[in-house]
Amino acid sequence: MERLFDLDMQLVQDSVLLAIAIFFLFLALSYLLFNPVRQMLADRKLKIQTELDDAAADKTDAAALKAEYEEKLKGIEKEAEAILSEARQKALRNEAKIVEDAKEEAARIIARANEEALLEKKRVVDEMKQEMISVAAAMASKVITANIDVNIQNQLVDETIKEMGDSTWLS
After folding, report:
1. Which of 119, 144, 159, 167 could staple 148 via S-S, CB 3.0–4.6 A?
2. pLDDT of residue 140
3. Is the entire prediction scored with pTM above 0.70?
């Protein structure tokens, strides 16, 4: 029977030469392929690390901006409250001015009405005087129809009015 695996010298030499060839092939390929791939992986790792650092910096910046915007929002609320307060004060001032103007207008209307009432009172007093004069003249003319002429009659009426005085007519 023959052997399945025969170790002869030719096989040993071929195996050693094949091992040396594979070693040199591995060495050449590692120099040509593995080192560039390792360099590419290192560059990629550096790029990823840089991007992670940039992302962390961006996250920090975003947190700072968020805090700043929250402060601005608080400031805006305060500013809005200040604007509303100012608007309320302005409305109160306008209200006071309108009320004051209305009071002044009412005072002017009352003063004008009082003046008109005084003028009307004077007119009524004058009419009353004229009416009393005419009544007194009519009565006097009936009493003294033949003895007194018109000039004497007017003189008597004027004397009577002077004796009575203005206080009698105004009351």
Report:
1. 144
2. 67
3. no
